[in-house]
Every structure is written in C-alpha cells, then in structure tokens.
Amino acid sequence: MAIKTMQSINGFIASDPQLTFTNGKARFYARIGIRHYEPLEGGRFRDLEPTFHDLVQFGKSAERSIELLRRGDNFIAQGSVRTYTRDNDGVEEEAEQFVAKRIGHDLNLTNYTVQRKNAAAQQAPGHDTPAARAAAPTIQRQPQLPPPAPPAPPPQPDTITR
C-alpha cells in the first residue's frame, strides 16, 4: 500500500487566533507567517522576510486548536491550499488560505511536556502492552563509574626565605 501524503506547511502564528461558529460548526482562523531562507556559499543561509497567509481549520479540531495555539507559537500543519474569491472594498480578488486538517506545535522549535489522556487505550496492538513488556528483554545498566580524579597541581618551585 502506498504512503498517504498531504501538503504541509510550517511557520508561526502571527495574529491572535479566532474561533467563530457558522451553523453550529466551529472555524479556527489565524494569520500565519512562513519564514524563508536563501542558501549561501559554505552551507549557510540568510533569513529573508517572512510571507503572511491565512490558515483555517474546521470542526472539533478547530475547537482544540483555539485552546492550544497562541500568537507567536511555531507550528506544523497538514492540509491543503484553497483558492477562493473575496470582496476587497468592492473589488473581487482571488485569495488563498491553508485549510488545516491537523496542526500542532513544531517539535524542533517548541519545548513542552506531553500529558497523555489514557496511555493504555492509545497503544497500538502488539506494541507497548503489558504482554509485550513482559516478553521484551530487560536491559541492565551498569552503574556509572565516578568521574576521574582531577590532575594533581603542578609542583611549585622551591622558595628560599631569609
């Protein structure tokens, strides 16, 4: 079976996220920034100005995102780009928005602690179950040796006092 893939983006939340409801359906909206870089000689990169875009998410995922995402958070989102027509002061123009199916904090740029709801119920069959743990080999770690003693100070020259 082929690996299922989707478009994804990474960036930062540039505005205060908003949650609205239309016909009882939640809609998460945030203005996002995407950083861009220019490769330089020697494997270095130069920061370019970020670009700014609209990100939306719908349903229960939108309600969860409004609880967890704040302005300035670095994120990774999976979904698709949607092009639509909007009215800008009486002039119709085409615009794009990223429609996120999934979104979360960028692990490369965010430190946090995971608090699992019900770890036992979320385990994949045959993986970290009590039966699998009982059958797995136990690793015995050797106690760490104490650090080596610091080197002796260099000998001091003899001094003569009169």
TrEMBL record:
* One of the record's GO molecular function terms: single-stranded DNA binding
**Record's superkingdom?**
Bacteria
Q: Sorted alphabetically, which keywords does the UniProt record give?
A: DNA-binding
Question: What InterPro entries does the database record attribute to this sequence?
Answer: NA-bd_OB-fold, Primosome_PriB/ssb
Q: Compositional bias of type Pro residues: which residue ranges?
A: 144-162
Give the matching PROSITE patterns. SSB
One family from Pfam that matches here is SSB
Q: Does the keyword Protease apply?
A: no
Q: What is this protein called?
A: Single-stranded DNA-binding protein
* Annotated source species: Jiangella alkaliphila
